[in-house]
Each structure stands twice: as structure tokens, then as C-alpha cells.
Amino acid sequence: MASPDESTPLIHLKRGDYAPVRPGDLRSPCPAINALANHGYLPRDGRNVRASEILVGMHQYGLGSFLGSVFTHPIFLERPQKDAQAKSSWWSVITNPFAHAFAAFGMREAGQKDSNGVPCLNLDQLALHNVVEHDVSLTRLDIAQGDNITPQPDLIDGLLASSSNGITMTIDDFVTLRRQRYEKQKADNPDLAFQGMQVQIACTEIALILKVFGNGKEVPTNYVKAFFQDGRMPRDEGWSKRRWWTLGLIELNMCASKIKSILGPGEGAIPVVNVVH
């Protein structure tokens, strides 16, 4: 059976069926979120996405409820205004500590809701720079270079070519590529910002790929190709989500910490201080 394409009527697609992004659809810089939309777990046009829909989508990747909530709920906070901290009161901190603790991750515009009054986001809002999106992406340009949403074919080719054996991608393969991307972006982007939280998020992204699609140490290259190049879950290649346990915060953080420890020391290390130009 032929794979769906841009000409396939959406009415014939069930939730879980894959269809590539169409002209006019909105997408984010995050391939995991985009794949959920391409499979219909989120609105396929990328508009008016609810937190509950993303939580369901996180389950499709085998993430536990708590970890899914950690990734989802903060971005649905309203985007903080420049003077929000000055206007906040001790009482508002006490009554809504979650909103204050995670305010920096908020991406929703003030009062942004769908036609039923439910808070929502459009997927392109996730491109807000240095909230979750960051410089030195493996497959996208830095925001200073113009388009920080669209996957770049040459970068995807470089990602796939970074496999040391052509069959799997290991932690070392990902770390080596991230170092190469960092050095390239230092030369190409005078406004580069990649330190601290950005590095932590970047390491967590790699950990997610290794833990969701692999065994925590390596992942099949054809899974990586399906995910980054086609924007889909690699089910046709044989992948299925975890059956016996879900991915939790502690397991993910342990993998991310290992990646960060490898990324830091040695030649081509990524510093944890600002790049000074």
C-alpha cells in the first residue's frame, strides 16, 4: 500500500496514520512534536493544540505520565511579560507556585484559547528562541540565520553520515556531531548562545532519541532517518514503544547526564560559559 502524500484527503486518515506536512501547516523545531502532528495525534495543521493532546502524544513515545507532564504543562503557561516579575506579588507566588517556578518556559500568548475556551498553542510558537528551542540544533539553522523551524536536508544528511558503522548511532556519534555543529556555528553565527540550560536541553534531546528509539546506548540509523527526515515514528522499520515500563524522569536524566559528561571534557569540548565575541 502506498504511503500517504500531500494529495491524500485528510478524511481518509485515522489517528496514528502518517501523512507528511502540507503547505500551510504549522510545525515546530521539535521533531517529536512534529511527528505527533504528522501522525494525527495532534491537529495535523499544527493549530490550536491542547496540552491534553500533547500528553496523549507523549504516551505514544512510551513516556511516563510525570515525564510527559514535565515536558507539556510548562509550555502552556502564558508567556511572561517583561515587567511580570516586577508586578508579581508574594501572594501570587504562594497561590500558584508552579506558574512562577516554570514561568520562563511559558509560550502561550496572554488569553490564548481555542473556540471552546481551552488554552492552546500553535506549533510554530515552540520556536520561541532560548525557551526550549536553542542554537546548535542537529538538523536546523540557528535563529540568527533565519529559519529555526524547517529541517535542513544537508544537516540531516550529515546526521545520518555521522554513524560510525552505518547501522546504528551511538552516544559517541551524537556527541561528536554536536561538537562539530558547535564549532561550525561558532564560525557562522556571531550571535551564538549555547551554554548552561541550552546544553542541558541539547543533551536531553539526544537522551530521548536513545531511550525512546534505542537501548540507551545506540539507536538504529534507519529509525533516525525516519524520525528526522520523514518526520514520522519509525514503525515501518520495526520500532514500537516500550511495553513493560515507561520512560521516567530519573532514567532520562541519568542518560542526559552521561551525555553531558562526555560532551564537556576533551578536545572540542563545549564550554558552560557564554561565548564571547
Give a structural overview.
The protein has 277 residues and is mostly helical. The protein has helices at 31-38, 51-60, 65-72, 84-87, 90-95, 97-101, 153-161, 171-188, 196-213, 221-230, 249-263, and strands at residues 168-170, 218-220. Helix 2 (51-60) packs across helix 3 (65-72) and helix 9 crosses helix 11 (249-263).
What topology emerges from the helices and strands here?
Layout: H1 31-38, H2 51-60, H3 65-72, H4 84-87, H5 90-95, H6 97-101, H7 153-161, E1 168-170, H8 171-188, H9 196-213, E2 218-220, H10 221-230, H11 249-263
Antiparallel strand pairs: 1-2
List the defining traits of the structure above.
277 residues; two-stranded antiparallel ribbon
Strand content: under 5%
Calculate Rg over CA atoms.
Answer: 19 Å
Major beta sheet, specifics?
2 strands, antiparallel
* H/E topology pattern: HHHHHHHEHHEHH
Cα-to-Cα separation, first versus last residue:
54 Å
Mean residue pLDDT: 88
Q: Which strand order spans the largest sheet, edge to edge or round the barrel?
A: 1-2
- Proportion in helices: 40-55%
List the total number of helices.
Answer: 11
Give the overall shape, derived from the CA principal axes: globular
| Helix vs. strand class | mainly alpha
> So what's the oligomer here?
single chain
